[in-house]
Specification:
The protein is of the alpha+beta class and 404 residues long. The protein is built from 14 helices and 20 strands. It has a domain at 11-75 and 110-177 and 282-358 and 390-399: FAD/NAD(P)-binding domain (3-Layer(bba) Sandwich). It is 34% helix and 26% strand.
Length: 404
């Protein structure tokens, strides 16, 4: 697919979440225009937290959304503090101050997803975003694409970027169908007001409690006004991977019966509890198809155990903007280069996150004691430098032959 020399391709972004809006923002930064189609009536995120590591923070700063993000994000003093499930014994705690900035040039933050969404949204003009626009199909028509919406309207584009999440209709239309498999793991989430949180829960620490077949995570968000809680355990007989599904506080508490009273206090202080099953989706062998490409969870959904879902979507976004801006007259070629730059890295992060399940959920015994001993002497901040030290923008610019 080619566009007229000197012209810019018409770019449609399907999905107005963090990845879709980051794509629009970076496209604008690199001199291109886009139209974002978001099915929701307003731009918002579910009540959940996110950890923004240096590889995401440096891109927020480049996009211009960092100042808005910093107003409510919580700079973390420890990236991971592992604790024992029954009594809170600290197994390992790695200080981020000042090591994280010294190693990677940025801090690590925890934040509400809505605050991260607002930060990337700040770089996108209002007129670029169409709300209440649910895409139901994307069809090749000659040398361009028709996007059909649920209200019966349609729109044309030269490039379609699918940022429509794990249930992407664009992926199903263009990629080889891959039926997800149940992982056997269910996730619970809640937001707890600071006034109701037990002692220690508001510390600027990413805390992980490890126990047999379960782990429990919490950290402060919203400038310390709330605590984000996300926990994992064995799935039951039902399967629902919708982030809007809910369960009761009573059921959540029963899943962690016998755990440290501080864990139970956080559960008891929850108002609404989300519950969804983690489905297993292997990495795609490709995600660009002429003028159509995938981004974020639509391309590489992953388990949340390395807290890299949003970060990888933002990395996708800047890489896509750089390649498209380099050869706007050849968008298909730009999308192939975008995919080539991102495929191996995102697949590797999918795989290491997947492998973390077994380590976190070991039953008490010899293997668990060996794990705890390794945690005590480990240095994950440096061991994961390939994640946190990566600069996706500079990597893409170098690959495209741009200075700096």
């Amino acid at each position: 697919m080619q566009t007229a020399p000197g012209s810019s391709p018409r770019i449609a972004v399907v999905g107005g979440g963090i990845g879709g809006l980051a794509a629009a923002g970076f496209l604008r930064k690199y001199g291109l225009q886009a139209r974002v189609f978001e099915q929701a009536a307003e731009l918002t995120e579910v009540g959940a937290g996110v950890v923004a590591a240096p590889n995401a923070v440096r891109l927020l700063r480049s996009l211009g959304g960092f100042e808005a993000f910093e107003r409510t994000a919580v700079p973390l003093t420890a990236a991971w503090q592992f604790q024992r499930w029954e009594d809170g014994t600290v197994l390992s705690s790695e200080s981020l101050v000042p090591a994280c900035e010294e190693l990677y040039g940025e801090k690590t933050y925890s934040a509400h997803r809505a605050d991260l969404l607002a930060a990337v949204r700040a770089g996108v003009p209002d007129e670029w975003v169409t709300l209440g626009a649910r895409a139901v199909d994307v069809t090749p028509v000659g040398d361009h694409y028709r996007i059909d919406l649920a209200d019966g309207s349609s729109h044309e584009a030269d490039v379609v970027v699918a940022a429509d999440g794990v249930h992407s209709i664009v992926r199903e239309r263009f990629a080889s169908p891959q039926e997800p498999e149940p992982s056997g793991i269910v996730a619970y989430r809640s937001i707890v007001p600071a006034a109701s949180a037990p002692a220690g829960a508001l510390d600027p620490v990413h805390t992980l409690w490890l126990g047999p077949d379960h782990h429990f995570v919490h950290y402060p968000v919203s400038a310390g006004r709330q605590v984000n809680v996300v926990a994992f355990g064995p799935a039951g007989s039902t399967t629902d991977d919708s982030w809007s599904a809910e369960t009761s506080v009573k059921q959540f508490r029963a899943e962690f019966d016998g755990w440290d009273p501080r864990v139970l206090a956080l559960i008891d202080a929850s108002d609404r509890v989300g519950r969804w099953d983690l489905l297993d989706r292997p990495p795609l062998p490709r995600w660009s198809f002429d003028g159509v490409t995938l981004l974020g969870d639509a391309a590489h959904p992953q388990f949340p155990f390395y807290a890299q879902g949003a970060a990888q979507a933002i990395e996708d976004a800047v890489t896509l903007a750089v390649t498209l801006s380099t050869t706007p007259e050849d968008p298909a070629g730009a999308l192939r280069r975008y995919e080539a730059l991102r495929l191996e890295r995102t697949a590797r992060i999918q795989e290491v996150s997947h492998g973390r399940v077994h380590v976190n959920h070991l039953p008490d015994g010899d293997a668990q004691r060996e794990r705890d001993a390794r945690l005590a002497i480990g240095d994950p901040l440096r061991q994961n430098g390939w994640i946190y030290g990566h600069d996706a923008e500079q990597t893409a610019r170098r690959a495209e032959g741009l200075e700096g």
